[in-house]
């Protein structure tokens, strides 16, 4: 029983580390500057 709990904790930590890695990668690869969107609501401009 104790070994299963250890595997569960290690698995949860691995999932958290992978999730944070993906989040940081996506944030770092986003272009800096101005974002323009044109849709049914009109034109919107956002500074990053």
From TrEMBL:
Which residue ranges traverse the bilayer?
6-25
Alphabetical keyword list: Membrane, Transmembrane, Transmembrane helix
Q: Is Transmembrane helix set as a keyword in this record?
A: yes
What protein is this chain from? RsiW-degrading membrane proteinase PrsW (M82 family)
Native organism is Kaistia dalseonensis
Q: What's the source species' lineage? A: Bacteria, Pseudomonadati, Pseudomonadota, Alphaproteobacteria, Hyphomicrobiales
